[in-house]
């Protein structure tokens, strides 16, 4: 069991672990944003090429379909961390106001169920990544454009692991004084 001083100074390793998790989550979020910008440029170049030269950029539909999935899994851990994770919270907000302990219990149950579901997703996604890596599966047409599928499958696995860790961090931040998030105003109910 970790110990900490009355001043809420993190026990050795815990503060570093939460800080590292938050920084990696932010890095994934920024990467997702850069991928969105790259897609906008690619789609603009494709439209321009079609109109100006009657020559589209090869592989745009394939890259867009792969990128959308990658963007979701790159950015969803930060959405949870910053309190922007999509969910219906009118009931839980009412419970938190009227019965704070019951609300915290419900929030913790929600987080634990999410950890269980995401763990199942990781368990199911890992073999798909390994298979695509080993077989070198791709999208596109040979001779025109091909793109490997495994990078997106890896992003799905790693993004899901980060999301799972953020749910675990929500639980820890709820009960451990020194585990508070880096940014002020972050919703960690």
Short description:
This protein is mainly alpha-helical and 189 residues long. The protein has one domain (14-179). The protein contains 5 helices and 2 strands, in the order H-H-H-H-E-E-H.
Give a written overview of the molecule:
- This protein has a two-stranded antiparallel sheet.
- The protein has one domain (14-179).
- The chain is 70% helix and 4% strand.
- With 189 residues, it is mainly alpha-helical.
- The two termini are 24 Å apart.
- Helix 1 packs antiparallel against helix 5 and helix 3 runs antiparallel to helix 4 (100-135).
Largest sheet: 2 strands, antiparallel
Distance between the termini: 24 Å
- What is the CA-based Rg, rounded? 21 Å
Number of strands: 2
- In DSSP terms (H or I, runs of 4 or more residues), the helix count works out at 5
DSSP helix fraction: over 70%
Unreliable spans: 1-10
SSE inventory with pairings:
Elements: H1 14-53, H2 60-81, H3 90-98, H4 100-135, E1 138-141, E2 145-148, H5 150-175
Antiparallel strand pairs: 1-2
Helix pairs in contact: 1-2, 1-5, 2-5, 3-4, 4-5
List keywords for this structure.
4% strand, elongated, 2 strands, two-stranded antiparallel sheet, 5 helices, disordered N terminus, mainly alpha, single chain, 189 residues
């Amino acid at each position: 069991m970790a110990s900490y001083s009355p001043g809420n100074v993190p026990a050795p390793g815990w503060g570093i672990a939460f800080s590292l998790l938050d920084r990696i989550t932010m890095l994934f979020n920024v990467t997702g944003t850069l991928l969105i910008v790259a897609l906008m440029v690619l789609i603009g170049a494709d439209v321009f090429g079609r109109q100006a030269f009657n020559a589209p950029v090869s592989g745009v539909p394939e890259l867009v379909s792969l990128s959308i999935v990658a963007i979701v899994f790159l950015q969803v851990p930060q959405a949870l961390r910053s309190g922007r994770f999509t969910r219906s919270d009118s009931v839980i907000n009412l419970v938190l106001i009227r019965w704070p302990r019951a609300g915290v219990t419900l929030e913790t149950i929600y987080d634990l169920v999410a950890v269980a579901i995401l763990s199942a997703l990781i368990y199911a996604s890992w073999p798909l990544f390994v298979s695509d890596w080993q077989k070198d599966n791709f999208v596109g047409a040979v001779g025109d454009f091909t793109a490997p599928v495994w990078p997106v499958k890896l992003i799905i696995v790693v993004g899901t692991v980060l999301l799972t860790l953020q749910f675990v961090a929500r639980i820890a931040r709820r009960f451990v004084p020194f585990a508070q998030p880096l940014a002020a105003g972050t919703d960690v109910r």
